[in-house]
Amino acid sequence: MSTTPDLTQATWVKSTHSNGDGGDCIEWAPAHAAATGVIPVRDSKDPQGPALAFPTHAWNAFIGAVKSGAFPADAG
């Protein structure tokens, strides 16, 4: 049994927070997430590249941390 999700038929949607100049873009597959409880995320500039898959609870915790400022933009 494979633990790698089959995303070959996934419909990807670009994040509404991605900028419009072609950079800093992520995509996710909401239908896959709804069907499986796993949130797949990938770099829109490399659609044939790897995707990360997060359990819904982990993704929600990450988004909550981002919204609360736990990852300041100038931290790098």
Structure in words:
With 76 residues, the protein is an alpha+beta fold. The protein has 2 helices and 4 strands. It has helices spanning 30-36, 56-67, and strands at 13-14, 26-28, 38-43, 51-55. The protein has a 4-stranded antiparallel beta sheet. A hairpin with a 7-residue loop joins β3 (38-43) and β4 (51-55). The mean pLDDT is 84.
* Topology order in helix (H) and strand (E) letters: EEHEEH
Helix content: 25-40%
Low-confidence stretches are none
The main sheet orders its strands as 1-2-3-4
Count of DSSP-assigned helices: 2
Distance between the termini: 39 Å
- Biggest sheet: strands, sense, closure? 4 strands, antiparallel
Radius of gyration from CA coordinates? 13 Å
Oligomer: single chain
Structural class: alpha+beta
How many DSSP E strands?
Answer: 4
Average pLDDT score: 84
A few lines on this structure:
25% of the residues lie in helices and 21% in strands.
Short key terms for the protein model shown above:
alpha+beta; four-stranded antiparallel sheet; 4 strands; 21% strand; DUF397 domain-containing protein
Topology of helices and strands:
Blueprint (H helix, E strand, L loop, with lengths): L12 E2 L11 E3 L1 H7 L1 E6 L7 E5 H12 L9
Antiparallel strand pairs: 1-2, 2-3, 3-4
